[in-house]
């Protein structure tokens, strides 16, 4: 095994096994350097499994086989190194880098509630900006009646969210959307969700969502951009949250949402995701 290969190849070790063994023994910590613990291992404890795998893979160590492996690069002196990233210029069709999903309730002309999934939103204090395409019923409703509820679904609700995905409360359906969307005035029923009266605003909350934020629409900012124009334009709806309802099970110390018990549904490049169960760490200002 030439060290130069180690420098340029990224390797994850899947397994190393004796040629006589039919059943492969998967290596648990395959992407780390560790030492072989197979019976009668020909390798000394100081010998990394990576070296062993390379040699077995290349037939240097007789009697042993290895599956192709990838780990972080190793330099000639055996230390691990990160790959240097290579870049290309591309024109991504979408820039949806994994943001939470909200179901936005807004008030229709007949005082029923429209419910629309969005993922373009963020909060600073209790002020939120919601990114809305102009050709949505939600944007129309905001222009006419300046109240809403921002409901946050749980990951397990993704299929209900997806039931809302091809629907619009706009009739007739705008030309740009006509091929993929259809008009649906009763969104709650269509998605199997339950409307729940709000306390301050007129649009209904969504009972199944563990977080429901009643809000007032304080401004509608016209958004610019050629790519956005191709989608019919958009607005940044500035809303101020006026009441927050949280499922009791997820409340921590009265004024926090426990991030170890609840996390939002994530929209990542048009796929639904959930966050991993364990956090990576916390910021210096975390109080829980
Ligand atoms: C997960 C998901 C996220 C979405 N995010 C947005 C968004 O941020 N802004 C937006 O205008 N539309 C978004 N959409 C598309 C709207 O839900 C869609 O245009 C819908 O027809 C709007 O409903 P309405 O016309 O009744 O308001 C999203 C759709 C899905 C499924």
Explain what you see.
- The protein has 288 residues and is an alpha+beta fold.
- It has two domains: 1-86, no CATH class; 97-274, Pnp Oxidase, Chain A, CATH 2.30.110.10.
- It is built from six helices and 20 strands.
- The chain has helices at residues 3-8, 49-57, 137-144, 158-164, 187-191, 226-230, and strands at 16-18, 64-66, 73-74, 80-81, 97-100, 102-107, 113-118, 121-124, 127-133, 147-152, 167-168, 182-183, 195-196, 205-206, 211-223, 234-246, 251-252, 256-257, 265-268, 271-274.
- A seven-stranded antiparallel β-sheet has the order 7-6-10-15-16-9-8, covered by helices on one side. Strands 5-19-20 form a three-stranded antiparallel β-sheet, with no helix packed on it.
- A hairpin with an 8-residue loop joins strand 13 (195-196) and strand 14.
- The longest helix is centred in the first third of the chain and has 9 residues, at 49-57.
- The radius of gyration is 27 Å and the shape is globular.
- It binds flavin mononucleotide.
- Flavin mononucleotide (FMN) is lined by residues 101, 114, 116-120, 131-133, 136-138, 161, 165, 167-170, 181, 267.
Output the strand order for the largest sheet.
Answer: 7-6-10-15-16-9-8
Number of strands: 20
Structural class call reads alpha+beta
Question: What count of structural domains?
Answer: 2
Bound molecules: flavin mononucleotide
> What proportion of the residues is helical, as a percent range?
10-25%
CATH homolog superfamily of the largest domain: Electron Transport, Fmn-binding Protein, Chain A
Overall geometry:
globular
Q: What CATH first level of the largest domain would be assigned?
A: Mainly Beta
Rg (CA only):
27 Å
